[in-house]
Amino acid sequence: MNRIALAMSMLMLGTPALAQDSDNKRQAAVWYEAFSKHDPELLGSVLADDWYETPSAERGGKQAGMKLLVSLTTVFPDFDIEIQDMVQEGNKVVVRSHITGTQSAPFMGLRAQHKKISIQAIDIHEFKDGKIIHTWHSEDWMTGLRQLGVFDALHSGD
What we know:
- This protein is an alpha+beta fold.
- The protein has one domain (2-156): Nuclear Transport Factor 2, Chain: A, CATH 3.10.450.50.
- It is 43% helix and 32% strand.
- A 5-stranded mixed sheet has the order 1-5-4-3-2.
- Mean pLDDT is 88; it is low at 6-16.
């Protein structure tokens, strides 16, 4: 009987941590759903008020994240992001994703090219009390800019 009681108590002690891991992964998935649905309010629901991102120096809180979503989905009206992998370690969730979209408005000083991008991204989301407090981004913008034709002039000798 003691072995059963010990096993049950070990299972019970592990349950809150497992539940939190599952909740954080579920909340991280909402980030990607919000971008795919072009829904800043949905994104805001998973960001802490003082959320910030790296490498950006801006510390505009969750409003900055919501503004970023609106900006990207305006420039790329068919913007979509698909989760490829998701891993959790402690209070951080790492996501590898695939981003697609067609540039239909000026972007980073580049006039609308009406060309498609297809790039990979890695994000690390840090959680506290069920909200994302910090996100590290690493997107393959070199590929994206090449796909938009940014480097064509360099190759043509112009």
